[in-house]
């Protein structure tokens, strides 16, 4: 059987950052991804990142991905693409499919960096062709350079909804409405301002009541909500559209963490059920680490930092770094993570992350 | 609809095409793109009909999770078109219900 020191599942920002850390420390890494290309969702992120310079602020997402891939290549990280991992067995054997064949790889440590998937929203007509995740539309325009439609309604005004609305316009579509059930915009004001200035009508305290069409989306009916989130009769508006994009949050892709028996907790602000992990990103199953959206939905900058943390912790436990060197490196990452988790949007995530870490560390003492 | 020029990404200089057949009709696809992208570019939005009520379905998640976009490809049903790249001569069919295994396998 093939073997490696650390198997990383998922070659997005978290997995790539973790791989680079371990390989830099001299460890042998194998990185798995089910897709044809590594990079995760970074290649569709054509906007400039936020934060400070050490977080690559001002750099566009796909440029960050190019750099991560270049580093993994220079460091000789083994990347297995088109290789979905279906299970990890008791003795750290990774079961995966490649070339339509079951294969296995023996690892010493495993990092799960599987990311997240978009939430769906139930409404009449929600299954019609033309209703899709905002992320799916973003992949189509920015990676495949195909417009899914011409007249688009965006549901949800978090940063994904705002950024993808703007990018749909950059790709040549009209965003005919942005619909938000809450009374205020969910994402950053700077993103909202961009689409407002471009003339997109923003409907706060509104939801989609119905989407109609013979075989595809042709029209949406939106309706105003009262302070109890109830539809106000008589406020319906009919809007012609061929595409409805849904951006109502994401949920962590945790199947593998479930399979190996990690303890979970439910934290809505982090996307739902998340595996508990300590300050080293290690789960309640020794030797299994998590990084990025699987450990709570945030964004790519914090995913990369978490990947680095998990990578350094793995390198330490394999004896590639002594304790002092490792704790210095980890402290640097924690300082940057704390900076990312500041402000009205970040602080809430930090509070919830701290809860998650307390649970895992408390569990260790009891267990 | 293809995005030919883009304010951030610039011109699309890709020029390598492959021919695929969709429900008997030939369409041009960009080499290496997912089947779903080629179909949307050709204005095709309905990928399958559901088993019980025959309702139309198209792409939803775009990352291979939801399986709403499955079609019969080269005679094999339930292929996730959002994560399967096109290949020269590929035969793609709208999937009715659970689909049927064809002779192209």
- Give the terminus-to-terminus CA distance of chain B: 31 Å
Q: Using only CA atoms, what is the Rg of chain A? A: 21 Å
Shape of chain B: globular
Give the strand order of the largest sheet of chain B, numbering strands 1, 2, ... along the chain: 4-3-9-7-8
H-E string of chain B: EEEEHEEEEEE
Shape of chain A: globular
Number of strands of chain B: 10
Measured between the Cα atoms of the first and last residue of chain A, the distance is: 33 Å
Tell me about this structure.
The complex is a heterodimer of chains A (367) and B (105). In chain A, 33% of the residues lie in helices and 24% in strands. With 367 residues, chain A is α/β, with parallel strands linked by helices. In chain A, helix 1 (13-24) runs parallel beside helix 2 and helix 3 runs parallel beside helix 4 (159-170). Chain A starts with a strand and ends with a helix. The model of chain A has no long low-confidence stretch (mean pLDDT 94). Chain B is mostly beta strands and 105 residues long. Chain B has one domain (5-96): Ubiquitin-like (UB roll) (Roll), CATH 3.10.20.440. Chain B has one helix and ten strands; from the N terminus they run ββββαββββββ. Chain B has one helix at residues 35-41, and strands spanning 5-6, 10-11, 17-22, 25-30, 48-49, 56-57, 70-73, 76-80, 91-93, 95-96. In chain B, the strands form three sheets. A five-stranded mixed sheet of chain B has the order 4-3-9-7-8, covered by helices on one side. In chain B, a hairpin with a 6-residue loop joins strand 5 and strand 6. Classes of the chains: A alpha/beta (367), B mainly beta (105).
């Amino acid at each position: 059987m093939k073997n490696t020191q650390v198997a990383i599942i998922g070659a997005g920002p978290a997995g790539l950052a973790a791989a680079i850390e371990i390989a830099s420390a001299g460890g042998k890494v194998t990185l798995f991804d089910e897709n044809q290309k590594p990079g995760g969702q970074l290649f569709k992120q054509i906007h400039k990142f936020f934060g400070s310079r050490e977080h690559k602020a001002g750099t566009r997402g796909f440029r960050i991905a190019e750099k991560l891939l270049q580093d993994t290549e220079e460091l000789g990280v083994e990347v297995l693409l088109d290789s979905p991992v279906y299970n990890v067995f008791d003795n750290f054997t990774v079961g995966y499919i490649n070339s339509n064949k079951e294969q296995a790889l023996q690892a010493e440590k495993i990092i799960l960096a599987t990311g997240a998937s978009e939430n769906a929203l139930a409404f009449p007509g929600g299954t019609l062709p033309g209703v899709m995740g905002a992320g799916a539309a973003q992949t189509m325009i920015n990676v495949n350079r195909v417009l899914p439609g011409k007249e688009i309604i965006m549901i949800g005004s978090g940063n994904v909804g705002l950024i993808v609305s703007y990018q749909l316009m950059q790709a040549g579509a009209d965003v005919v409405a942005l619909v938000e059930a809450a009374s205020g915009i969910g994402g950053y004001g700077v993103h909202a301002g961009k689409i407002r200035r471009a003339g997109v009508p923003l409907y706060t305290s509104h939801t989609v009541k119905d989407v109609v069409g013979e075989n595809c989306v042709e029209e949406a009916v939106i309706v105003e909500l009262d302070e109890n989130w109830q539809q106000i009769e008589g406020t319906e508006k009919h809007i012609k559209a061929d595409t409805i994009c849904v951006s109502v949050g994401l949920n962590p892709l945790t199947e593998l963490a479930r399979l190996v028996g990690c303890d979970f907790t439910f934290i809505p602000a982090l996307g739902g059920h998340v595996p508990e992990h300590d300050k080293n990103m290690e789960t309640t199953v020794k030797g299994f680490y998590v990084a990025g959206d699987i450990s709570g939905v945030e964004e790519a900058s914090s995913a990369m930092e978490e990947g680095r943390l998990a990578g350094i912790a793995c390198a330490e436990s394999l004896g590639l770094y002594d304790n002092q060197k490792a704790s210095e490196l980890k402290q640097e990452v924690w300082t940057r993570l704390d900076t990312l988790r500041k402000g009205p949007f970040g602080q809430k995530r930090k509070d919830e992350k701290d809860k998650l870490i307390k649970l895992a560390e408390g569990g260790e003492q009891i267990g | 609809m293809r995005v030919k020029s883009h304010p951030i990404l610039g011109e699309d200089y890709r020029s390598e095409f492959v021919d695929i057949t969709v429900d008997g009709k030939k369409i041009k696809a960009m080499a290496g793109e997912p089947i779903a992208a080629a179909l949307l570019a050709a204005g095709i939005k309905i990928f399958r009909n559901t088993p019980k009520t025959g309702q139309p379905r198209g792409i939803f998640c775009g990352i291979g999770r939801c399986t709403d976009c499955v079609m019969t490809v080269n005679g094999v049903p339930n292929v996730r078109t959002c994560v399967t790249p096109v290949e020269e001569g590929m035969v793609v069919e709208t999937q009715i219900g659970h689909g049927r295994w064809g002779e192209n396998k």
